Amino acid sequence: MAYDLIVRGGTVYDGTGAPPVTADVAITDGVIQAVGQVSGAATRTIDAAGAMVTPGFVDIHTHYDGQATWANRMSPSSHHGVTTVVAGNCGVGFAPVRPSDRDLLVELMEGVEDIPGAVLQEGLPWAWESFEDYLDYLEPRQFDMDIGTQVPHAAVRVYVMGERGANREAATAEDIDAMRRITESAIRAGALGFSSSRSLNHRSSRGAPTPSLDAELNELVGIAQGVRAAGRGVLEFISDFADVDAEFGLLERMTSEGGCPMSISLAQGLSPNGWRKILGRIEAANRQGLTMRGQVAPRAIGITMGLATSLSPFTSRPSYMRLLALPLEERVRAMQSPQVRAAILAEPVGSGFARLFKLMDGGRKIWEMAALPDYEPAAEDSVAARAERAGRNPMDFLYDRLLADGGRTMFYTPFANYADGNLDCCRDMILNEHTVMGLGDGGAHVGIICDASFTTTLLTHWGRDRSRGERIDVATLVRRQTRDTARAVGLHDRGVLAPGMKGDVNVIDFDRLAVRVPQMVHDLPAGGARLQQKADGYIATIVSGEVTYERGEATEALPGRLIRGQ
Length: 566
Description:
Layout lengths: L2 E10 L8 E8 L2 E6 L5 E6 L4 E4 L1 E3 L7 H4 L11 E5 L15 H12 L3 H7 L7 H8 L7 E3 L2 E2 H9 L1 H4 L6 H17 L3 E6 L18 H14 L3 E6 L4 H15 L3 E4 L8 H14 L4 E5 L4 E5 L12 H4 L6 H8 L2 H9 L7 H7 L6 E2 L14 H7 L4 H10 L7 E6 L7 H8 L3 E3 L16 H12 L8 H8 L1 H6 L16 E4 L5 E2 L3 E3 L8 E3 L2 E2 L1 E6 L2 E5 L2 E2 L12
Parallel strand pairs: 1-4, 1-5, 6-7, 7-8, 9-10, 10-11, 11-12, 12-13, 13-17
Antiparallel strand pairs: 1-2, 2-3, 5-18, 14-16, 15-16, 18-23, 19-22, 20-21, 23-24, 24-25
């Protein structure tokens, strides 16, 4: 038998969690035909001897809602073995929308997900009003991976209620009925689910809280009933859980009324064990027959800072802020002046930067990023510890390091999952049966966070490199990022290497697999800048049987398409 593609002789981790086997994977017409000892010819053969072969990674928490309308490549995710992404998380997106509300949705995405408004204003074609129109716009577009979408609560609320919705007024019975019908129709048209945010951290670029922040129970139940009426779909939520019992009771009721799975963002905050109470409630809900999952990350969530990024350790100091308009090279030269240096170091931190400056903890919680970053850094490698060994003030030491490498040096300050100074909490979350991998935010926070590389970190750190605690079996790690994530959003045609499944595959040199340090690039609409992060070790990434990336470089193939849920 002749096939389109055969990946021969690799060490196959099939996505089920089973031990690896040496096998071939044969694909025709974008579908896996055989896994095992495959005889016959193929239009193309990839020699995978000595390499790891896995299903393509499924990333269920991204914000490519805008990027998918102007670009074909969903990077940085595409550099990290991802073959399927789900956008529309955290209740923000661009449909449905009335022309009069476009600016409001841009301001909301700019504030919540740190995507510059100028980029969105130039890049978004606004060739839609309803969510169905948005799907129809994406339908003919070609991508380097498959893209699924969710209905965003904020957009729906503003579409139905206008200014009342943006101002977080209580929804009337008529408002709720309209939101229910919009949600049902969007999911019937192909949306994978519905998302919402109940976090005070989510604000527009004008500082206004997200419209869905304090939506009442009857509104959430009405929307959930729309999901139930559609016959399928998932719910995705983020909440501050200021009152865990009250908030969780509301989410349980919504899950029950919707008759569908819910995932809830879960991370360790400044309180080392607060997340365990939420996870305990998730476990209890599952024992009661609900399907609820904590959506978790494989490493700390942190801010990347430097002179080229949106934030530097000296952001808000007047003498530094006066230099921001200068090109990087000129800014570095200016900062080398003894007078400028003295002024910046002497100035107080502005109120808008106080929270992040506190996180840096006098240099004890900020680390310089190497060419291959360490995402579980030790206290003795912090800026403060290095400065102490050199007999210097931490901020004075940091100033010099910022100017190194022409001002391109990057620094990392964790703000979640690192209260204990290690990643033990992440290991517990990864291994819990009621969690699912997520939170990478690909396409968002473009100037300060680059966590689309979570998929690569999951394999390298937990499966091979961790030296500060226990590791995790590689077969389990692969399952967590393939079959488990796919099934969590109702995608049962991918995530496992087996006959009849979608031909999405990664061929990986596991010994060489590594995440590189992020770099700023200027490739967004309006010349916007974003953090790009690549990886070493991906021999080939295959989508629907076509090689989309080979040894880190993009091919001309764009087999990815819009996913319409069924």
